[in-house]
Amino acid sequence: MTEAECPRLLSGCRTKYDTVRGNWVLLAPERAIKLDEIGAAILAETDGERSLGGILDALVAKYNAPREQIAGDVVKFLTSLRDRRMLEVT
Amino acid sequence: MAWTAPTIEEVTCGMEINMYF
After folding, report:
1. pLDDT at res. A23
2. What CATH number matches the domain at A11-84, 2.60.40.1500, 1.10.10.1150, 1.10.3210.10, 3.40.1000.70?
């Protein structure tokens, strides 16, 4: 996954805040994944329009961590969602 | 909030999944 590529959730996949349990979940047809706050923050920036580079820019501005560290974690996270057929990269 | 590596926890219990839908 390169910084020029644009990740987006597949249709039918959406994030939702579970008010009962107080955490974010990623819902797909008949599937659910619990997210932590960082995962939810990544997906909040993943709007289908922004490139991976743009997503990283936004997260680097928000969190006090080296871009290299954030990039590694974000790519690993998004790749795991792609492997689960919840996300595509164009 | 400090940056930490994001975690993913797949919900495997069918009843729990149904609670979200």
Report:
1. 84
2. 1.10.10.1150
